[in-house]
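Demo today. Your pick:
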Amino acid sequence: VRITAPSKKEAENLKNIKDELKRRGYNTPLIADIHFTPNAALIAARIVEKVRVNPGNFIDKKNFEIIEYTDSEYNAELKSLRLKFEPLIKVCKEYGTAMRIGTNHGSLSDRIMSRYGDTPEGMVESALEFVRICEDLNYYDIILSMKSSNPQIMVYAYRLLVKKMEEERMNYPLHLGVTEAGGGEDGRVKSALGIGALLEDGLGDTIRVSLTEDPEFEIPEAQILADRYKEREKHSKIEAIDECPLDLYNYNKRETNLVENIGGDNVPIVFSDYSISGINDLKDLEDIGYFYNKLTNKWLLADTAADFVYLKENITKLELPNSLKLVYDYEVWKKLENKNISLPLFNLDEYLSTKEKHQSINFVQLELSDLTKQFLDKLKTNTTVVLILTTNNNHGMAEQRRAFFDLINNGIKSPCIIKRSYKDISFDKLRLYSSTDIGALLINGFGDGAWLEYQNEYKFFQKKINQLLFNILQAARVRITKTEYIACPSCGRTLFNLQETTEIIRKRTLHLKGVKIAVMGCIVNGPGEMADADYGYVGSGVDKITLYKGKEIVKRNIKSVTAVDELIGLIKDDNKWLEPN
């Protein structure tokens, strides 16, 4: 259990906490979370089992100053860092205390920022500077973390850390987490996407799901993510590759042909699956973002309106909006009177054996084993095919990623929709599993769309599935349809009701598509996380809030009762405000 200890006073009180827990029969190891106060760490390391230090603000300066360092000046600061850090290492060695060296994307030091910028490389170097000092003193009881509120950056930072450790013959365990993930479904999706993508790669030894909720709600989500890998080694075999065509450390979208509105430079599309229920009434479409106004005889579309609907064999006679494309199984589609207003879905045999195709788009559903030389050769000259990639492998993400490797290595540029099917699991598990499986591919630059099939009280969940898919795309930063929130969990440093305030801000600003707002309890990561947000709402004292625009402070120490209104005022001043529709 981690306990924040922001000053010497709180660090000293850890003894009272530990003694009382032991008196009550609890032996859970305690971790002291230290940021700005090395002296507090020296006290805590004599009491608890582990101390957590953040290289960006434990010793180094962070004034958001860009300084042109010469090599000698840079090395001089490293020597100063070493002198201040060595006493903590010696205490940890003496008392058998472990240490987590936890880099945060939002709190890199001025020195690191000046040389490496706000990058995964800077995050990794920030931690390894501390590790090298530990190793020089023969101290190895270390675990490392590379946290960010952006899952994409977080995943690339951990991968790069492993690469750098291998180069320097290090092999320390990893603590995984997406920091400031927020609450509700957004926080869960972000956490599963970042943590799950790394667990899928076999990386990670401890995990923490960080939610802007009471801490006990974090544990079940983390447990679901961890339990999924208990028997993962029993998955169906996936052939190894000789050379990886993927840049593991930088985001690059797979190059694809443009087929109507799929692929090319377009954002990924969303499929909605009505194969069981069909569409029997115009109101059925409200769940996926389409609203019919009888008075005006017009359709209103939400930002999260699905792009395609799969009907299987459920032919609809209703007059639907032109922007919504209907997809039927090929055997049904070929019998339709007007084939141009709907699209066919082929299995591989159907596609290879029939000459009848749609003039613009032909969906072909397949899995890795279907990518034969015969089919790949056909794809090279066909500009109408959109692949629907499925899997039944217990290690499905890895199998689908292997399929993308084959497409790249064979020069295939057909767009590809990621389809995943789940049944007989709770919606909470569905949320975490699909965020991992689909999201991990998206942040690798793979996938021109997403399709989620859920066999469990299907119709009831239509709206929730559609929203989930858009949340996954948003968390992967590949399709933005709403406001982005960066919100930390409450801790001992927070001086206002973080959950309540975050929800107030969310309710008033949720309609601002593409605007990023950070809600921070204190200044530990607040100013740094502003770098990834347009506006920041940061606690700076009891009943005091400081407002940021980017990294810049625009209003200091205003009363919390008026702070939300003043935040909205800043957004209005920048002409980014829209009245809710």
